[in-house]
Amino acid sequence: MPAITNNGIETWRLRTSKEQWIRWVCWLIGLAVIMYAWQMISEKTVWFFVTDAPTQAADIGSRMVPPKWSYMDKLWKPVWDTINIATIGTIIAMVIAVPVAFATARNTTPNIVVRTIGLFIIVSSRSVNSLIWALILVFILGPGVLAGTIAIGLRSIGFCAKLIYESIEEIDHTQVEAIEATGASGPQKMIFGILPQVLPTIAGVGIYRWDINIRESTILGLVGAGGIGLQLNGSLNTLAWTQVSLILIVILITVFISEWVSAKVRGAII
Amino acid sequence: MLQLAELTKKYNTGELALKGVTLEIPKGQVLALIGPSGAGKSTLIRCVNRLVQPTSGSVVLKGTELTKLSSSALRKARRRMGMIFQEYALVERLTVMENVLSGRLGYVGFWRSYFRKFPRADIQEAYRLLDRVGLKHMADKRADELSGGQRQRVGICRALIQNPDLLLVDEPTASLDPKTSRQIMRLIQELCSERGLTAIINIHDVFLAQMFSQRVVGLELGSVVYDGKPDGLTPEVLTRIYGEEDWSATIKSTDEDDDDEEEF
Amino acid sequence: MTDSSETGSYPSSWKKAPFIKNSFVRWLIIVGGAIYLAAALGTMNIDLERVKEGLPRAQRFLDSFFPPNFSDNRGVLWEGIAESIWMAIISTVAGIALSIPIGLGAARNLAPAWVYLFCRGVIAASRTFPEIILAIFAVKLFGFGPFAGFIALSLGTIGFYAKLLAEDIENSSASQAEAVKATGANWFQWINYSIQPQVMPRMIGLSIYRLDINFRESAVVGIVGGGGIGATLNTSFSRYEFDTAAAILIIIILIVMSMEYTSSFFRKWVQ
User: Fold this and answer.
1) Range B190-204 average pLDDT
2) Structure confidence at residue C7 (pLDDT)
């Protein structure tokens, strides 16, 4: 846009000088924020530990090898628990998320009060990390797999419901109109016109979340909510580094397998 | 059989899509509705089955005033009006058979339709219709595996299985190639005469309108500007409907009809 | 579905073909799934007695939301929040700064094979472990406090941002890149003129999204000693100060909500 005449010579510049100024000011503010943030963080940092970190890392690293393979015998059950927490948690979440999604989508729920309640459920479930949910539930239900499962479920409701309700709002409306034109009732419109269009999304979201949940359920044990995180926490506290490295390897493999499974299943469904 | 009186539609945006349209359509008549885009053709036929709520005026089908019906009575009335859509509007992830059977939804209860347990007579009728349009072997294919012309045939079956008195057809050929367009229009025309159906067909292709209808109504900015025989569409009339353009090449006399199938 | 079209009578029954065509596989999945669910639920040790005992505690916890205690007796609440926010900002900036070279290296259409494999390896490693586990190690190495959280979140950001950046570059238009290359541009000019304009809008959106995630995560790295509001939350739990915990949860939800709102607004504005 700006062909600027300077002393009678026409030159081209990408931005006008006003735009250029605004950009500089934005950069300056950004930089100031970052500097201030860094200041705040470094004030609370003991720099001796930081400079010492490489030695520490080398030390811990050397203590971690070789992994204590025999400890595997005690890990099968926690791995099994971890997978169960993720799977059952996801199932619980989906059972609740689908109706919540339909109650939140603009085109299936004209009632604004119902929609606001749906949005509230989604937001509060999404904002609280599963580890915090687990912290709360361990206090209420006592430590164990049940608290972890419910924590995963509660955290996943919002995530799944959000993705599903967005896809409900994006459906092709003429297909629904065509069903309506045949004289179908409201519920029939839902199962013939809307559900077939969002079913692939629902399945996809469920599997996607299951994959994430496997990852998340590996750490719930840190607050006592069951799964392999319990062993990780125990091994860390007793400084049993060879066990820690084995657990990390097991987590790595579990996550890889779950990623592979979810990719396969999603490919088969969609 | 169908009377529209002073039918008016004003959208929330303030746009006046229909300005007091009055039409009387006798039983068995196939009426083509032509006009430029935005003339209110789609709105008009959607006002008949109230997919769009008319602002004022009346729609009377076989003596029933449709604009005043309660929602359950409206559902009953809709069962007698089949609709065929521009982009087929099949539920793409359902099978052909389910799409056809969805035309019977107004007659079966929720759980029966949920478990796809339609009455035997409906299923027989569905097969018969699919056979009629040449798609019986496709019954278990998913709708999104079909070509455009095939999809529109399924759309026709869905409308006909309702056993309608009136067929509302919204731009049936808009996304089809010229040859398929003619085949689809011919199919609709044949089925209407077989069953003595009344039909309103929105169509932007003047030539097809002339070929396959008994009466043409021209709509411009929500008002009827032409109502008469297909061969009455002179350049002057078309200019009134669509605006100034050289129309001489568009107009054909209707008796050349079927011989020029491959001309396009 | 028998073919009876010539006789003029049509089949009067029809069943939808099942989703999984092979009936053996179908039953295997159904039965296998049922057995798995039974086994999973069976080994979960659901103790109804304990759940019943928990109900009054749940009641107590819920009661503490009415009203929550924002008074902040020990002066740690607002400090924790501020620490979380600074931590989120700085780790997003650092994480993205590291992600850009790694993302460029992990794009198959830009990088030579060995660079590609190395960068993909870094991304995979950072993606596999949750931020919490990274935080545990960071705390072991750098001591308690926000610095450990900062390191953990920065590393977590790499796995997320570099991966998406690489994918975006791989999906960018090859013809635009070719056209710029054809002008005789050097590597940096080439990236600057052909790749950057294509990926920039989405990447700005994603960085705001990541800031949002990092704030959420900063609320939990504190549980393992990584500083921020999570530490405050954990202490208030272990001290049974539920009204303070309730206040913290409400603040977290409010901040996350407002961030989500601004981030979606920003993303619309950028595109």
Assistant:
1) 90
2) 47
